[in-house]
Amino acid sequence: MEPESRTFTSQRLRIRYVVWGDEANEPLVLVHGGRDHARSWDFVVERLVDRYCCYCIDLRGHGDSDWSVGSQYSLPEFVADVTALLDHLGRDPLSLVGHSLGGAVVLQVAGVLPDRVKKVCAIEGWGPKIIERTPAHLRMRRWLEQLEEFADRQPRRYASLEEAARRMREENSFLSPGLAMHLTVHGARRNEDGSYSWKFDNYVRMHSPYEFNIDDARVIWNQFRCPTLLVRGDKSWAADPEEDGKASAFHNYRSVLVRDAGHWVHHDQLDEFTRLLRAFLDEE
Predict the structure, then answer these.
(1) For the chain, how many structural domains are there in total?
(2) Contact 253/230 with Cβ under 8 angstroms?
(3) pLDDT tens digit sequence for 44-67
């Protein structure tokens, strides 16, 4: 089974998304993490399409979506992309699932547009364990230095898809060879010389000169009352949202720890994650 590829426009950029399943079914939007792509959800949605129509987006600068003019990527811009997708679909209210960066995005969308969201699941999308405060002038100086560095930076080239897949497994040792290859096939493009490079824009790696503002995030999270599932892996660097206090900003939430999983819980423990997600979505 293959999904249908479609596009829409967000802030003058062509954004691509894929559709899995019968659109007569209940809608579900899934948002990938940084340097990832829509097809990273394939094995999850294959277990959901009997009841849900799944819409998986390529955020700007990722997958087959346009790269930002000026190479700026920030959380508000990614929120704008998902909001534009909701406008494009016109299927409110719907449920949202996001991983890492995508988890942060869906939590923001739910907070800003609470009437349009039915349920939300975030996999490690509530920010870092420790937020270091750096003076604003130093952050801006470092950002300007990064702009110069990235101007001369070329995407890494891999001799084959197999080499690229090996690099992916170095990043996440939980990945099976088969899953790593699947993610690579859909996450890399072939260059003119026959080599392969990742599809994402290198500039998505840059850190904004504006720090993650936990106070603003808490205000936004506090706006929605829909059922919320917070998922993290026990082998991940992610913080426990209950221990560090972030979970107190949510109202109707459940926090779940998945054993033997790193940051990519939906890849590392596919069976357990899809069981949890399916049970959460099916609850009345």
Answers:
(1) 1
(2) yes
(3) 999 999 999 999 999 999 999 999
